[in-house]
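Review form for a predicted model. The reviewer records the input and the model, then writes brief findings.
Reviewer: anonymous (R2)
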Amino acid sequence: MTALVRLRLDIGYDGSDFAGWARQPNQRTVQGVIEDALARMLRLDPPPMLTVAGRTDAGVHARGQVAHLVVPVAAYSAINGTMPRRLAGLLPPDVRVWRVSVAPEGFDARFSALSRRYVYRVCDNPFGVEPLRRHDVLWHPRPLDLQRMNEAARRLVGENDFAAYCRRREGATTIRELLRYEWARDDRDPHLVLATVEADAFCHSMVRALVGALLMVGDGRREVEWPARVLAARVRDSAVNVAPAHGLSLEEIRYPGDDGLARRAQETRRVRTLAASTFAAGAETPAALPRQETPQGGDRGGR
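Model under review:
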């Protein structure tokens, strides 16, 4: 039998010219570009398959993406220690593999992750975005009130059914634990606003829908309580505008210590459900209820 080794890759990319992460026929994708470069470098046919922590959509960027792959020990040993440098010569300039390491036992880039952290960048300068930042910053021509936005964001944090902010997929749960949602202005540019969104996992379009809802609160078009009411309804609301992809960047994937990797992967592979509940009068968000364990798929990725 061929001896195999599992490798962890730490990756960054400018998503502007990619049709997202996932390989697609006749489309330029991050996965396809990296897998093809790995196949050439390792002399493997067919190309090795990458498993990624978060499958970003078309136009979404990443600074802290993580993926793993399994390759023959012989192929890896032949170039051990030189993979990032070799890949730099094979990859286009809009994608980089910063680090390649042998993964600890039990590591799964997707299922072992504790959380994913995204940042969405918005400029509310009435004259527009600084030209060099136009590919990763959204221009919002109305002034934003961050105090209102943070008050609204606080009401969304916790474990809830985010069906109202997700594109449903057959058989997939929309229950997620939103760990952090904060808005702040950049210290160096008073017109640059950063939304930090962190969760154990994200469903399709969730981050951009959350950002779109809060932009409407920040510029006064919606009241502070509106995003929480949308969440409680658990139904996709056409009034929630999904923010454009180019302002979003995957910044960090957080993992447990080596001894907790396999256990975390096992915990993630189950569907979470919120038991039927009634809400007290005036309640704006559903309370997080105990998880019920049934088999599940993992994170669909951030958006």
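Findings: The chain has a mean pLDDT of 90.
Further findings: The longest helix spans residues 30-42.
Recommendation: see findings above.
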